[in-house]
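new request in #modeling-help
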Amino acid sequence: MTDKLSTSDAFSKDFKLSRYIPTPPSTPPDLAQWTQVAELKQQTREKNLSKYQSWRLDQIPSEDVLDVSQLVLSKLSERERAIVHLDATAITAAIREREYTAVEVLIAFCKVTVAAQDTTNCITEIFFEEGLARARELDEHLQRTGEVVGPLHGLPVSIKDHILVKGQDTSTGYITWANETVAEKDAVVVDILRKAGAVLYVKTANPQTLLCLETNNNVFGRTVNPFNRNLSPGGSSGGEGALISSHGSPMGVGTDIGGSIRVPAAWSGLYGFKPSVARMPHAGLLGSHDGMDNIVGVVGPLATSARDLELFCRTMLQYEAWLLEHAVLEIPWRAEVVEGKTLPKRLSFAILWDDGVVKPHPPLVREMQRAKKALLAAGHEVIDWQPLEHKEAWDLIVKLYLLDGGQEYRDTLKMSGEPAVPGTEWILSHAAGRPAYTVPETWKLNLERESFRARALAHWNSTVSRTSTGRPVDGIICPTAATLAIPHDQTRWWGYSSHWNLLDLPGVVFPSGGRLNPGEFQPVERVEPRNALEKEVWSLWNPETFKGAPINLQLIGRRHNEEKVLAMLNIVEKAMKA
Amino acid sequence: MTDKLSTSDAFSKDFKLSRYIPTPPSTPPDLAQWTQVAELKQQTREKNLSKYQSWRLDQIPSEDVLDVSQLVLSKLSERERAIVHLDATAITAAIREREYTAVEVLIAFCKVTVAAQDTTNCITEIFFEEGLARARELDEHLQRTGEVVGPLHGLPVSIKDHILVKGQDTSTGYITWANETVAEKDAVVVDILRKAGAVLYVKTANPQTLLCLETNNNVFGRTVNPFNRNLSPGGSSGGEGALISSHGSPMGVGTDIGGSIRVPAAWSGLYGFKPSVARMPHAGLLGSHDGMDNIVGVVGPLATSARDLELFCRTMLQYEAWLLEHAVLEIPWRAEVVEGKTLPKRLSFAILWDDGVVKPHPPLVREMQRAKKALLAAGHEVIDWQPLEHKEAWDLIVKLYLLDGGQEYRDTLKMSGEPAVPGTEWILSHAAGRPAYTVPETWKLNLERESFRARALAHWNSTVSRTSTGRPVDGIICPTAATLAIPHDQTRWWGYSSHWNLLDLPGVVFPSGGRLNPGEFQPVERVEPRNALEKEVWSLWNPETFKGAPINLQLIGRRHNEEKVLAMLNIVEKAMKA
């Protein structure tokens, strides 16, 4: 067992209240100034990177080099290559067994991080020295006591930009916050990571507003996908997607209110987990709409193995996060459920082939077919999931995202004079011309939300009439988005990810189908579009466009059943790998 | 084991959405009309009661008869008297053992209900025949099968007016809703009660707006305390308080967003339990501000024993309420915790002697002293609880109650032209002249709420430095209000009850000190008031005023620890009865 956190150390939001609620400036901004802020911010990052010149690539590849995923490993020794290909569970075991030191592990990941930044533009704040000091301390501790400080002893963990890390800036993709938001305190998740022995060394890019499934902002620019730089690594935790899939980090912390952990995991070929609201600590995040709780986001892990997702969750709850943050549910982690001990032998899965709005692109349909075949072969049941009003669900959740008509986003941009990036323009267009809702109007929207949740619960329950197990289906398999990693600024449909936020159901994303080989698909395959949205999304379909894009699936479970979702993931992976 | 509910039967809020959001009338109301609605409603109730003329008191006592608590039993046989003095657990056992039939149990309680109505004005809707039909059905079922249908087989349960009971009006203390709100569906809590074998037969009074700790409305008038009719039975679940303390019901269902279960339990000498938000089903309630979730109420039981509180909670979760209502937390009931199996042998309690705003009246201070002595004698630890900003907490929660500036309440009254009762005037005075908040303003209030919760969590954690157990205190003992059952329309301070709603901590109220004997106290005892509120509350203090008022205490636990709270209650009761 590890030490418990100081129990008087509960996280207070006072800090944010006093500093981070932006008020529009009273004088018109100098339009030249915002670019200077961005330049300064990027110069600082470059200056930090330049300390590690020997770790940088000998030559930055030209723009037409699309796949940089191997290139980023080119400065590593064989031993370092081995390290960065381990998952977090294996790394912590190897450090515990003194196969590797925390210092050499961190250096290996830092080397790749430098290269990943130079090729995909995925990081924001760099604090390798602080990480190395902590790694040395941990190595000495293990040497001296023979004990690890916690379950993550020596594990490098990367942190999404808007999550507070003491001493680091929290610009969060806003010019006006850049250099003005150095955190005085760690977020609760960061606090626990440190106590558990994790080594922090880098923060990663997120998009302007955070309300975007790609990653682009005026502070640091656009983050690209290491497997195909014409494609997005996803967002809003896209810096994590690009960094971890480059092997620059074994585990990252993201956040998800509409797909922001799962989409970057899917588009970057990673594992990503969105738990139910309030199962993991969530206090200590900087973002717009702080205090809005009509629809709430979650913190969760991105990693390179299913077991690492559990390692993250188990660690958070081992430290009794509910004693540090009021909102966290006191539901201790049920490891025996993840181990499958309580799982029925024969499971019943439903596949969501098509949400009724935008049919998924061919590689995703093929992947679901493969999952079905594998699960049937393993003796499980597979039925079709009847989609429940994905368009209506989107229309509702986007109102909840923009209750103030988008005013706070616009005000925050106006403070610095920075323009909206395309992703921001697109999401704000959903509230174009609409004033902020009144308080009673928000109550009606909440009722619509609860009504939708009630219908969805009944809908899931009703599958009992279509299964042979005597139970409703255990889980739903579906894509994370209608496309694989998308060409930049083209994201138009969140209905395969935000749907599960509206319903607050846990969802895990996992790489199952490798990376796209265009030769396996017909370039001319088309659907007869049922609507303008589907037409637009399908106009993108061309296998060459998506060359090298990872093929992932998503598995959805019932609320508060995080452990069962991970247990089912083990079953699905076993079947699909058989 | 009992049957599970139909899993496709999740509760939908659609019904309420379409019918119950009032819109102000376009024409000025006829001021005469509202009294006609009230007359009609009361005549209907009287007509229903008149069917049971032989059960009514031979003579309605005159107004100067203050204590009617024995009188209401005067029409009962010895056997019936024995029945109505049993708690719910004993009743269900006796029916299961065929000592009593469900029919004779119900008739005993109906007899008292009739008398309780004639003496305290505590009920709204009467459906004895429906109850008797169900009781007969249950008796036949047990006779035929030898099995009970569920854990509440044959138990009469009374339901607070604003909780939907299929086929019954839900006037909820509003003239405009009277006769217009016949429920098409049961609330989830009612649904489970029925499936568990409970027998429904009566609904009970709540105040206009529900946001009142007394019980008075223009539809049915004022509800009074059976132990002293000059006093209030509390509110908003005050009909339950008066009915159950009269022995007209063994168990009632109330709701609590500021003290509305606990205050009537305290002022009526009963057990009452406010669980954490979302541990018990809550869907299917009619009230103003539907959809508001900045501060949320809960459903909970009022009863005559501690074990009955558990019976209620255990039953709700045995039927997997989370499969019927999305919001309910999937935390199964932990009976072993209630049994004390996980409880440390030596507990540490903190006593909140004075919240720093209004010092409790002398009988409550004496009762806490008695609790302290008893707990110390039983080997437990008792320290002082340092109150945390009760005035600030109240100022915040009352803003959350009235985010729209009280507009919806006023609009609902305006629709019928009925006047505000004094309790409504008092609560609405907190938003007098203030417009509705804007959406961003509500976000800031939510942040203040979270900040307060964070400070309170740290505050509780920090007691570890003052205990000898190595743990923070296990529970807090305090009054439920600064006074015993109060003279009508005098309630001015919610700080001992609403504080725990703001913090979402479970709280149980229990009768510990019998009923007030004025001879035991000095009439002239006074405090030097620290503020106008304290002056006002203490100007009421005179032992004669509170003659016969029950003396109860409140026990607060940590969030989501309902089972531990009930386990600690057993310890406290055992110590105080020793």
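bot summary: Chain A has one domain: 38-577.
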